[in-house]
Amino acid sequence: MQANDNDVLLVSGASTLPGLSFAVIHKFNNEFNSIESIRMCITPGNQAPRGESTIAAVLTYCGKPVKCWIS
Question: Domain boundaries in the chain?
Answer without folding.
Answer: 1-38
